[in-house]
Amino acid sequence: MSQPVLKIENLHVAIEGKEIVKGFDLEIHGGEIHAIMGPNGTGKSTLASALMGHPKYEITEGKVTFLGQDLLEMEVDERARAGMFLAMQYPSEIAGVTNSDFLRTAINARRGEGNEIPLMKFIKKLDEKMALLDMGEEFATRYLNEGFSGGEKKRNEILQLMMLEPKLAILDEIDSGLDIDALKVVAKGVNAMRSPEFSCLIITHYQRLLNYITPDKVHVMMQGRIVKSGGPELAERLEAEGYDGLKKELGIEEEEGTVEQEA
Amino acid sequence: MATEMKNLHYDTSYLENFSGRRGEPDWFLDLRKKGLELAQTLPLPKPEKTRIIGWNFTQFEHELPTRTVDAVADLPENVRSLIGQGEQSGNLLVLHNGSTAYATLSEDLKAKGVIFTDLATALRDHGDLVKKYYFSKAAKLDAHKLTALNAALVNSGLFLYVPKNVDIEVPLQAVFWLDHDNGGLINHVIIATEANSSVTYVENYLSTTNSGQAVANIITEVYVGENARVQFGGVEYLSSDVTTFINRRGYVGRDGNLQWALGQMNDGDLITETYSELAGDGSSVDTKAVSIGRGTQKQNFVNRIKHYGKNSTSNMLIHGVQREEAQAIFNGITKIEHGASKSDGEQTQRVLMLSSKARGDANPILLIDEDDVVAGHAASVGRIDPIQLYYLMSRGIPKNEAERLIIHGFLEPVVSQLPIEGVKEQLAAVIEGKVQ
Predict the structure, then answer these.
(1) Residues of A with CB below 8 A from B390's CB?
(2) Could you tell me the CA-to-CA distances from A232 to A192, A209, A225 in Å, in that order?
(3) Would you list the domain boundaries of chain A?
(4) Looking at the 3D structure of chain B, how many domains does it have?
């Protein structure tokens, strides 16, 4: 098998001195879609934020290799330019910066000086992707996420994903707070990206999204690490039995009641 | 007072010679003399929370070399780049070190009785008209040492007069360009509009040297006649070696409307006040200003509005960015006098700091001596949000570029509302220059 896109070995992540992710291992190869499921507070979103380089999270141990490079040595923007994308659970609002200016700046940051995307090409691509995501034209000129509803923010995250064409997308609870129609739109966007050059890590609490995006592998995360891995059938089993059945099977004690930090 | 500032190098006979060479009327020379006398005795202004003792307001060269050009194309690129609409509309005045380098006014406006010329020329050709406005209702000569100094040593200026019922649709532009190390730009601008007139005026301050100790002392008087409308746009870009005092004062008559739109992008130490007096019933003023502080510059911004007229309305929107080790105080003062019933005064001041060494302070002050009014204020001072930076960087945007976007975004609500398209573009370009 080829070199993995992402390889995580024994990762430990702490926030404000408290360890949340405790010895996490994962390998994702080109073209694969992985799902990480688990109850609230088990470190799923912490993992996602730590991989992107969120300033609040501290990696205390472990190794992450992204496309052959030491990810943990890279700045946030370098990780993004290398091809990583995180669709965030709580995207920031940036007043006064239009969505389209922001996207063009981000695309050009990746393409580099002297290789900027021609304006007409950019507009065409933006129109096309917005149409696919059922986003009105006004989203191009609205300020970045400012005053967006929860669903609009999620859609905007997927728009960015489609415009930036990363090699690895991490979707952090992209399905939370979405109605079924919005969920289908988001899934349509992700499915449109599927190719051997695109890998995806879907972090979710519910199985629902996986009805629309079929994962290659499903992992269950509890107490800061993966406790079980399987195929799409694992997600279906969790939907039917809930997490309690799995806890019993694995002999996992009740969670300590850690509340996951919001990014 | 002797410890406050170094003594002036000028005396009465110097003023007589200087004034005589310029062919100024006697009343003007008298005001120079009065100014000189008061400049020796009056104290410096006392801007709140900014210590200006030791700032250089008095040591400069007063008579500066100037040159004229035949066409805009002959001006240096950094001056030319500021000239947009003024050139297109054919109404442009460029002053180089205080004297006219280039001037043009359309025949149409001349025929309507519009006067748009440098102060020295206006004093010669329209002395009585200038006298009516110069240090009249809007500005006081004896406010403090710096206003007196302006009267004594004024060596640059502009006079714009719009007669009754004249609507000027195209903007008029003035560029005050200083390019002399240790030069003193002692500037006095008068904009006088009669009843039912309207005008859009855009001015630029630019200095193109940066190796001396220059001084800018600027007083601007804007008279808005009854039911007249003045849109005043200003973009200042004086370099770090210029110590600057700017006092802009508007006097608004009945049902008059004054709009200030200012980009205060200077790099040197600065004290500035933009004052509007809503004298007439139904008068209104709208003040919008943005600024960026950087390096180690210290700045003090006062925006002051006084409501005298009934049903008078004021709006103030001030956004300032502080980078590096810059320090700035923003004071917004809205005063509603007794009798100014049904008036409405609103103000918002916001300061964004980009580094831990930058300092900014916003003080909103409402002083209300009348019951039947509406007034409100908002002020905030904050640092750049690290989570916003993270978000932008997570899309591949480098940190400095992300900061640039956030600054543009922070200033955008003011910039986008500037009434004059040309100023908006010009300001965007100047902001770009200051955030890189």
Answers:
(1) 53-55, 76, 92
(2) 20, 12, 19
(3) 6-92+168-250
(4) 1
Question: Which range marks the domain in which residue B363 is found?
Answer: 12-385
pLDDT tens profile A105-155: 999 999 999 999 999 999 999 999 999 999 999 999 999 999 999 999 999
Neighbours of B2 (CB within 10 A): 7
Tell me whether residue B285 is in a domain: yes
- Whether residue B209 is contained in a domain is answered as yes
Number of CB pairs < 8 Å for A and B? Answer: 81
Inside any domain, residue B435: no
pLDDT range class, residue B211, cuts 50, 70, 90: confident
Which chain B residue is nearest to residue A90, measuring alpha carbons? B391
Q: Give A-chain residues touching B290 at CB under 8 angstroms.
A: none
CB contacts of B385 in chain A (<8 Å) are 92
Partner residue opposite B401 with nearest CB, options A79, A109, A143? A109
State the best of A54, A57, A76, A113 to mutate against chain B, taking most chain B CBs within 10 Å.
A76
Contacts of B35 (CB under 8 A, 6+ apart): B141, B148, B149, B150, B151, B152, B153
Residue B333: both structure tokens together: 């003062």
CATH (residue range A6-92+168-250): 3.40.50.300
Strands A33-37 and A199-204: parallel
- Give, for A111, the enclosing helix (H) or strand (E): helix A99-111
